[in-house]
């Protein structure tokens, strides 16, 4: 039978976690393992830095343009961080989903709440937890050796972690990241299963009808 009409709509795959729990490492591993998985590119009002490219690192826009996008409901989620705005433009994501590509997001619980209101059917949400508070602090201190973060910054991240982790129950899945390879495998399993959800498959009705007619 002709399988060319069997298509799949892509999904939006959100990974959230407190800083240091392993979200970025898992995201990078999934991107390497999945050709049809792309990372979401945010829009921002902050100035472009040296070496950054519009449309690859960020979509760089001015504040009036960003506000107009919000008013026109062209943002799936957005937030103000210090004096700059960051957000997820709807159009590039919609285009990717319609082409059967999956889009991965590295956003916090607030952005996830906004996206849940805007596009729940396309959304798969995963919260990454550390195995213990002591392990989270250990990872932050190890990372600080490279990033040169101060003791105050480390403690601020630990304080913020408690607030962030309190929102775990708003997510579809939870992964406790004790071993990163195991966590990557679990995140991949979730992605594979969600790709096979019946509601994401198009052309299946005609395919099954053809199977039944042939019996």
Question: What do you see in this structure?
Answer:
With 215 residues, this protein is an alpha/beta fold. The chain has a domain of 147 residues: Rossmann fold (3-Layer(aba) Sandwich), CATH 3.40.50. Helices cover 45% and strands 21% of the residues. The chain contains eight helices and eleven strands. It has a five-stranded parallel beta sheet with strand order 3-8-2-9-10, with helices on both faces. A four-stranded mixed beta sheet has the order 5-4-7-6. The protein is globular. The mean pLDDT is 91.
Keywords:
215 residues; Rossmann fold; alpha/beta; 5-stranded parallel β-sheet; globular
Tell me about the largest β-sheet: 5 strands, parallel
The dominant shape is globular
Overall structural class, as computed from helix and strand content, comes to alpha/beta
The whole-angstrom Rg is 20 Å
Instruction: Provide the helix percentage.
Output: 40-55%
CATH architectural designation of the domain at 7-40 and 101-213:
3-Layer(aba) Sandwich
Strand order of the largest sheet: 3-8-2-9-10
CATH superfamily of the domain at 7-40 and 101-213, by name, is: P-loop containing nucleotide triphosphate hydrolases
Discrete helix count: 8
Residue fraction in strands: 15-25%
Give a brief outline of the structure.
45% of the residues lie in helices and 21% in strands. By secondary structure, the chain is α/β, with parallel strands linked by helices. The protein starts with 6 loop residues before the first strand and ends with a helix.
């Amino acid at each position: 039978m002709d399988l060319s009409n069997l298509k799949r709509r892509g999904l939006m795959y959100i990974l959230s976690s407190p800083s240091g729990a392993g979200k970025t490492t898992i995201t990078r591993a999934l991107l390497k393992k999945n050709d049809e998985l792309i990372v979401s590119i945010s829009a921002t009002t902050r100035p472009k830095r040296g070496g950054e490219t519009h449309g690859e690192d960020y979509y760089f826009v001015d504040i009036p343009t960003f506000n107009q996008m919000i008013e026109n409901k062209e943002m799936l989620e957005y937030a103000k961080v210090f004096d700059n705005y960051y957000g997820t433009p709807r159009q590039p994501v919609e285009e990717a989903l319609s082409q059967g590509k999956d889009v991965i997001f590295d956003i916090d619980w607030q952005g996830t709440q906004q996206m849940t209101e805007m596009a729940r059917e396309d959304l798969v949400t995963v919260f990454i937890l550390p195995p213990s508070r002591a392990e989270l602090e250990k990872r932050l201190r190890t990372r600080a050796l490279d990033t040169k973060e101060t003791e105050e910054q480390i403690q601020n991240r630990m304080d913020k972690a408690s607030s962030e982790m309190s929102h775990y129950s708003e997510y579809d899945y939870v992964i406790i990241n004790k071993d990163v390879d195991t966590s990557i495998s679990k995140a991949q399993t979730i992605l594979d299963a969600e790709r096979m959800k019946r509601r994401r498959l198009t052309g299946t009705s005609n395919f099954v009808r053809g199977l039944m007619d042939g019996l």
